[in-house]
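Let us work through a complete example step by step.
Step 1: write down the sequence.
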Amino acid sequence: MSSKFGLLEKLEFLQSWASVLIANINPAIIHNLEKYYALKKVHYLSTIEEIDGDYLEFGVFTGSSFCHSIRCCKKLAKLNSKILNTTFYGFDSFAGFGDLKEDDKHPFYTDKNFATKLPTVTRRVQRVASNIQFKLVPGFFSDSLKNGANQLSSVVT
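Step 2: predict the structure and record it as tokens.
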């Protein structure tokens, strides 16, 4: 009985090659690719369903996923030009995590590994955004969003 996979079944070297390739990719790259893919799906569905609204990202860090979201919206404008009306808001301390309780401390997730500079992130986003409105909101969430979502409108205006 022959397999439905035909010749592919006999090409075990392709599976080995793919395994070696994936095993050698830095996990951070895979993490980002999966995150980018998920964001693209979100923006695609918002576009085809004509869901209006703004984009909020909490924990911008270097701006990679923030910029990716802007790129996705610009590309998807071919399907629905109204998506270009989206305003992008990015929240981050740009100084790491700040004071943490002992139970919340982690060997990798430290201020040293996650501190960035607001001007550097702003320049990066500006290069991508061109005609897209965005605002980066610096500060720890405990300060910039003390009153939760009720305060959001005063923070982003």
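Step 3: interpret the result. The domain at 54-157 is CATH 3.40.50.150 (Rossmann fold).
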